[in-house]
Amino acid sequence: MTQLQSVYPLYLNNKAAQPNTDLAVTDKFTGEVAFRVAQADAATINEGIAGAVRAAEPMARLAAYERQAVLQHCVDRFKQRFDELAYALCVEAGKPIKDAEGEVTRLIDTFRIAAEESVRMTGEVQPLDISPRARGYQGMWKRVPIGPCSFISPFNFPLNLAAHKIAPAIAVGCPFVMKPASRTPLGAIIMGEILAETDLPEGAFSILPAHRDGADLFTEDDRLKLLSFTGSPGVGWDLKAKAGKKKVVLELGGNAAVIVDHDADLDDAVERIIFGAFYQSGQSCIGVQRIIIHADIYDRLRDMLVARAATLVAGDPKDRTTFIGPMISEGEARRLDGWVQDAVARGARLLCGGKRTGAMLEATLLENVSRDATVYREEAFGPVAMLSSFTDFDAALDEVNDSKFGLQAGIFTRDLFKALQAWDRLDVGGVVIGDVPSYRVDNMPYGGVKDSGLGREGIRFAMEDMTEIRNLVIRRR
Question: What sign results for the dihedral spanned by CA atoms 126, 132, 133, 135?
Fold first, then answer.
């Protein structure tokens, strides 16, 4: 069995530092303290930002092959430490071990894509002689690093969502300070340990665990030129309001819907919907929360979903047979359990699940949920999904859009024209045909509209946010 250290440092200006062991991180299944991590105070965060400012010029001067070499080193070391990374994720996030291994695979993919893209940061030659006054003028532009960046990553994908900030920053030559989620800091700390093995300029990176109130220090400092935040909508929009003149990228929440049309392969749809709704205890911003089923197949699909949900194994995430582990905390499980009970009190029917033991909440399906219920309007972020029926496809699209969120949506249909209609009409960042909205590949543009965020991740698209266009005009007499 893989073992974790009892104490871990923070990383300040490329170097490990152990000023304290103030941050206690628990095993999310047992509730016991698993290890302790150094916690950054205001002075340490300020020192990290100052280091990033000093590193901006030497980072920008790195050749493409040098940036690529750093990223490739990370890929190689992540592969070597695969089991350690997966086990750490299983402990600190309560993520079932098979899912944790899947996230390590995505971490490797994300850095590999960044290594490939680091040598493709191209510009254009642009003709300017569009009228007689511009005769003899030639233009061209290139992308240059935006400068010191601030990253705040969440607890639910502590490896891969941190990677989606760190890897593109290195690919373009931006120094950064990162605040990992205080509940799950270890993945980012291990990334810092591996980055410290490279020859990045001093100050190129700092990994600084801090309490949530420390987020202000990562947000308001004018020396930082970009803030990239992944987390809850309430926190994200508040940080944007405080960010000042810097560019802001927000990857926030959702209450994703999937439509199942009458021509869908139901066996396939059941497997994918169960995965999308209950994978890692539903703690995904693109987890399936609303299941909208054609009336002709509603009863059959409902019964299939209930039967399949009953087979899911819940328990210790270190057990390879476990599908549903604990939520991130008992408080979060209690919150969602309260939303379920409120929906039932309003007339919803509980199809399965609905029981809570500590941080463990059963896979729960509801039907006849009022659209005014909190569990319908807000992001559940747990193992709860709701069923409803439709007869008109346009009405189903309207139901998907009846949300303040707009991250991704899934459509099970074999009708090409309905697929294109959904792509045209759905007010979301991504439409997935033949699968659940929970699907993501790490090179695609990913992000949402409305309360779900601002901007797009996916390596190439994040690299665009972390660079600015610098134009050159040449006059030939």
Answer: positive
